Amino acid sequence: MPCRRTDWTRGKRDSARILVVDDDAGIRAVLAEALSRRGYQVQKAPDGLWVSRALHSGAFAFDLVVLDWKMPGLDGLVVLQQLRTFAPETLVILISIAADDQFRFEALSQGAFEVLRKPLNFGALVSLVERALQHVRRGRTKG
Question: 117 — phi, psi (to 5°)?
Fold first, then answer.
């Protein structure tokens, strides 16, 4: 069952829906606040299991996911694989304190848009989110 997505290509950027997934409540809150201040609709999720349930129930409608790698239960790479299966157009930015070149290569080869290392530079994250959404917007307008 394809997941419903917001068509933000015709409207303002604030119609883009972003999901922030991190098992650290403080990081979730700060990331959500940084993205909300830029006008995005942001929802927070505590773990990969939340994402998996939303995907399997057909209740997943996000344009971009900021996803932690190391989480209890389902880690970020498992969730990335599920996103590629059930919501293939959803952009994914993986974040991790343990991200190295090998992890980055693996994540990108599995379909992540980019990998950022914690501690995060929030300006860099916001710029990356904007670049990711512009990248898809350009792709949609070429067709």
Answer: -95, 135
> Is 0.85 surpassed by the pTM of this model?
yes
What are 29-76's pLDDT values in tens digits?
A: 999 999 999 999 999 999 999 999 999 999 899 999 999 999 999 999
> How is the chain split into domains, by residue range?
13-142
28 burial (CB, 10 Å; 0-12 / 13-18 / 19+) is buried
- Of 138, 96, 92, which Cα lies nearest the Cα of 116? 96
Closest CA to 110 of 142, 134, 88: 88
Assigned token pair, 138? 């350009």
Fold of 13-142: Rossmann fold (3.40.50)
| Strands 114-117, 17-21: pairing kind | unpaired
